[in-house]
Design goal:
The chain has 15 helices and 14 strands. By secondary structure, the chain is of the alpha+beta class. Helix 1 (3-72) packs antiparallel against helix 2 (79-98) and helix 1 (3-72) packs parallel to helix 3 (102-133).
Length: 603
């Protein structure tokens, strides 16, 4: 059962009783309205009886007033008669308006007619006779009094008939109201019982569905828990068996889990580290500046992606262990997300690279020695030839040459000594490194490199041409850059082969002009082009891998790898590719004018 189905069942269980109660309320309201109508009819009957009694009292008042006047001849006794005579027409009209059926209307019409006859045939003659003849005049007229008595008896009989009819009508309405109340009570009871039974059965059915779904959910949850437990066991086994240190933290940076490798590398016991802030256990420094690095939790939350924790890829990260000792590490952090994509914690993966760093430094030093070995013969030849020339000049000067010839020989000897000095300085500058970045003239670096390689170029009967303006200046480490250009030029000359040609160019570039990089700052682009066979597809993807070489036993396979590390250290980019427009290959090196120098070497 999914959530939508469950919500539908809840709505059914909730709404069905409500709908049933609404139906009960509707039926009850209908019964109440019907009973109210009946009660209103009963009230009409009561009002009709009251109005009939009122008419009877008014007629009685007329009769009493007439009798008093007839006996006393005093007009004041006619006041009740006159007052009742004024009220009776309206009372009769109201009584007629209250009657609902034809029989009652006939009884009231008969009463009104008999009352009018009594007025015309008895009351008025008695009043006229009494006024004309004086006191007790009407009393002696026996026939008139008997007529009046018969008419009044008839009026009383009419009044009684109307009241009897009203009471009978009222009794029937009361009986009807009682039947309605009884039917309503019985109907409500039956309806309540039926609805109650139906609601009970319906609710029972729905609850069975929910119960079955709940049981199924419990079974599924039990299976999931077992799978989760097995997964956790597998995860713990995996973490314990891998060679990297792993630490997981919550969103607040407190350690929730770490494996034994991480415990050994940090020097903290796992139980002591759990719950502590990450920066207490994982204390890392910038390998170049010795400054405290940004808390990994903050950095991952800020970047919201997988990140290396150093400033860049070539920066050393130092982990300060609990006992104060230090090791070099390679580390990265990644966010842990919930199903909605929100970060709930981070995971750190790091490894000890102290041995690898020392090995890398040894490889770089070995490559420097290899470069020196390749240049040794060339340098010896370049120094030997000027020294031979100087020896010859000195011999000629001692053999009795003229003063003018001595001056010429001395000038030639000074030129040769200057050449030896230039070669010696170039050789020394190849490994004499400054402690901080300094301004470097790219043309001078390239010129010095070509001087050292001149003998090698001549041996291969190749030609090298340099094109570079004098104002190309960047900041960096000159010895390291000489090593980069020495490797690239040697590779180009050897690739060009006998009678080959190498073109070395350098120029200012803007970011959009550099095909080797997407840097956002201006810099210098150095291109070294040869007319050799180019780079094969198989070799192009492996050029910068350590120990890969196309020269067989003659190469170390470290030159390009070290060169890329040096260029990356200077915040630059390097690439090699076959020339698309013609035969050969091209090596491009981009160096930023004002780079952010990163310590380190090849990566």
């Amino acid at each position: 059962m999914n959530l939508s189905h469950f919500n539908r069942i809840v709505r059914q269980v909730l709404f069905f009783p409500v709908i049933s109660l609404v139906l009960v309320a509707a039926a009850l309201s209908w019964q109440i309205f019907s009973s109210t109508d009946t009660v209103k009819l009963i009230q009409d009957s009561d009002q009709s009886i009251q109005q009939t009694n009122l008419v009877g009292r008014l007629i009685s008042d007329q009769e009493s007033g007439l009798r008093g006047f007839e006996v006393t001849s005093e007009k004041s006794f006619l006041a009740p008669y006159d007052q009742a005579s004024d009220l009776l027409p309206a009372a009769f009209d109201k009584l007629e308006a209250l009657k609902l059926n034809a029989s009652e209307h006939q009884l009231i019409a008969q009463l009104r007619s008999d009352h009018e006859i009594w007025i015309e045939s008895y009351a008025r003659p008695v009043i006229a006779m009494t006024q004309a003849s004086g006191q007790e005049a009407g009393l002696h007229d026996l026939a008139l009094n008997q007529l009046g008595k018969r008419q009044m008896d008839k009026i009383r009989a009419d009044l009684q008939a109307v009241v009897t009819a009203d009471e009978a009508h009222r009794a029937r309405r009361v009986d009807h109201w009682r039947v309605q109340v009884r039917d309503m009570v019985i109907g409500l009871v039956l309806f309540a019982v039926v609805i109650g039974i139906f609601i009970g059965l319906f609710t029972r059915n729905r609850l069975h569905v929910v119960s079955d779904a709940y049981q199924s959910w419990v079974d599924t949850l039990r299976v999931k828990n077992e799978e989760l437990f097995l997964s956790g066991q597998q995860l713990r086994t995996t973490l314990a068996s891998i060679g990297d240190g792993v630490i997981t933290c919550d969103i607040d940076g407190r350690i929730r889990m770490m494996n034994q490798v991480a415990s050994d590398m940090t020097g903290w016991k796992i139980d002591d580290a759990l719950g502590r802030p990450l920066d207490t256990v994982f204390h890392i420094l910038n390998g170049a500046t010795r400054q405290l690095m940004e808390d990994p939790v903050h950095k991952v939350k800020r970047v919201d992606a997988i990140v290396g924790l150093g400033p860049n890829a070539t920066t050393d990260t130092i982990l300060v262990r609990q006992d104060g000792t230090e090791i070099n590490i390679s580390d990265s952090g990644a966010p842990i997300r919930d199903q909605d994509g929100a970060i709930t914690g981070i995971v750190l993966v790091f490894r000890d690279v102290t041995v690898a760093k020392r090995t890398q430094e040894a490889l770089i030093a070995n490559e420097k020695l290899a470069v020196a070995g390749r240049l040794a013969a060339s340098i010896a030849h370049e120094i030997h030839n000027p020294l031979d020339s100087v020896s010859n000049m000195l011999y000629l000067m001692g053999a009795g040459s003229t003063e003018e010839e001595n001056k010429q020989f001395l000038q030639m000897a000074q030129q040769e000594i200057a050449r030896v000095t230039q070669i010696s300085r170039s050789m020394l500058s190849l490994y004499r490194e400054s402690t901080a970045p300094i301004p470097i003239n790219i043309r001078e670096i390239l010129s010095g490199t070509l001087v050292l390689l001149d003998h090698r170029v001549q041996d291969l009967q190749s030609t090298v041409h340099l094109t570079a303006p004098d104002d190309l200046t960047i900041h960096g480490f000159p010895a390291e850059l000489r090593q980069v250009f020495t490797n690239l030029v040697i590779n180009a000359v050897e690739a060009a082969g006998a009678s080959g040609h190498v073109e070395v160019t350098a120029k200012h570039v803007l970011p959009a002009e550099s095909p080797a990089t997407e840097r956002h700052a201006a810099g210098v682009l150095v291109e070294i082009l040869d007319n050799g066979p180019g780079i094969s597809d198989a070799a192009s993807s492996k050029l910068f891998q350590p120990f890969f070489s196309t020269k067989g036993e003659q190469g170390t396979g470290l030159g390009l790898w070290v060169s890329r590390g040096i260029v990356s250290k200077h915040g630059g980019m390097i690439n090699l590719e076959s020339r698309k427009d013609t035969r050969g290959a091209v090596a491009r090196v981009f160096l930023s004018t004002q780079p952010v120098i990163s310590p380190g070497g090849a990566d």
